[in-house]
User: Fold this.
Amino acid sequence: MNNEKLIELRGLSKSFDGEQVLKSINLDIHKKEFITLLGPSGCGKTTTLRMIAGFVTPDEGDVIFNGKKINDIPPYRRPVNTVFQRYALFPHLNVYENVAFGLRLQKISDEEIRTRVKEMLALVNLKGFEKRDVTALSGGQQQRVAIARALINKPEVLLLDEPLGALDLKLRKDMQVELKRMQRQTGITFIYVTHDQEEALSMSDTVVVMADGRIQQIGTPEKIYNEPENAFVADFIGESNIVNGTMIEDFKVSFAGQTFTCEDSGFGKNEPVDVVVRPEDIDIVPVENCMLTGNVSSVTFKGDYYEILVLVDNFMWMIETTDRVAIGQTIGISIDPHEIQVMRKSEYSGKFGDYSTFSDEMDHLSDTTEPEAEDSQKTEEAEN
Amino acid sequence: MTGAAVNKRRSLCAAPHMVWAVLFIIAPLIFVAVYAFTDTSGAFTLDNFVSLADYTDAFVRSASYSLIATVICLIIGYPLASAICSCKPRTQRILIMMVMLPMWINFLIRTYAIMKLLEDTGIINSFLQLIFGEEFELHMINTPGAVIFGMVYDYLPYMVLPIYTVMSKIDPKLPEAAADLGCNKLQTAVRVTLPLSVSGIVSGITMVFVPSISTFYISQKLGGGQYLLIGDAIETAFGNVNTYNVGAAMSLVLMIIVLISTAVMNRFDKSGADENGGAVV
Assistant:
């Protein structure tokens, strides 16, 4: 990754059937960057990707590629290639012809096509699959063909629309590592769309968190996780306790009836804020020398740690600890200054971060909702 | 339940169809075959087939007219089906209904209507005379063109519908993927949409060619009886008890021609007719 801008999105807006799905998106994408658009179903991430590919034209704003506006350039003349959500391989062609498809459209000799297809199939670990029928391949293999078919054209940018969504967990993990390797090996800019926060954090140079058609935060995975800018980002990326607080002055914030030292500054005096503390950043200490006390209301064994819910000052906190505690026990809580993240109030304040209605099952369900089904369907309809 | 028991139950379910097939498909075929190989007294003979030499013209004419009609139907039907597919779902339904609408009207009445249109004093000529003056006359009725026009008009829906059915099932992401890989609209149509709609085209060709080659009445009305088609010859033959046997021989030969041409067509459909349905035979 370097600092040369490759794609600039300037004030992109789009409505389908009167519903605004993108609200003035601004984003810079750099050369050789692995950038991920992350957000829940219907947040506009797929629409953004399709605008870069050229399948959707923005109502307002510009897509700028290498300094040139490309709004009106049709998809087939853009130097980008896409790996589609359900691969969209050509069922009438075998693996070889699917991969060679893009090259056949250019004036390239059969000899060169053969060499390049061979190279590409080696890159995606599909040596010897040339003659296979694509409909007879497993999901993971189809996925690799789709990647090879896109990468063989040596695009400046590869767009990946939830490429791992249809694979099982084990395969998904393997493919994450492989995609990252391919990106390093080819030096191509990857723009990756997913609703899976773990995928986003482990693969990306830059994560763009989106919700409700807006970009919520842009940053490195560490920055997104450790310094979320609002309650939505804090909640969407990992587990977090989000409580109402007041910024007394620089480096001093009060919440849960106590005043804490923190590392944030630049807020107004006594400004109401959201305070985020990650469950793994909270220490359980003896009640005598603690900052807060709470009553344990549930303990869940998670293997290498316990996930406990603690009622502190009418707010349910989640704590991840290796200490053994019992339900009903009163415990002391201590939080280090650098573990406290202070955020400005936003439209998402108060919507997330309270574990009083929390259940693992619910959380699990909402994490694995049908990836962008609504969103892409809407797009298709509008395109028709 | 054992596998054999399941099979037995399944074959029981097929019984009504078997009875139907025997009664109405196989038995008539046997009758036709028996008539074709016998004379009026019921004795075995091959004379019926020898006498078919008189009808060579009719066979050739039927084959060539129906071939031309099929090609014209394909040239009109494929782009039409493709255009319908690119509309919104609601519009698609309306357009498909409009394609099928003529099929709701009796075949004879439709043919009469075409006659009224094409006649020397018909609607088209009256209209042309309004523009070009009284002297103008475009002679259309009683020409081979009129017969072929009749075939195209009557059988066009059978070309459009199977192509539309197959085409509308193509994943919309595939043309998108083609565009993404560098295909313009024409290249997408040739490299992706066309190969994926082959089974519809094969069905369409079969469904237009088979009824066209055996059609009757169209030629009598639109060709003025000058262009004998094999369907008409068969009809005439079965109009007289004494020529049943020759008629049966003609039917048998026609059936063989149709079977051969269908078999040839199906070779082009590599994906297999079973996959997309719609294919005949």
User: Anything to note?
Assistant: Chain A touches chain B through 25 residues (CB under 8 Å). Residues 361-384 of chain A have pLDDT under 50 and may be disordered. The two ends of chain A are 37 Å apart (CA to CA).
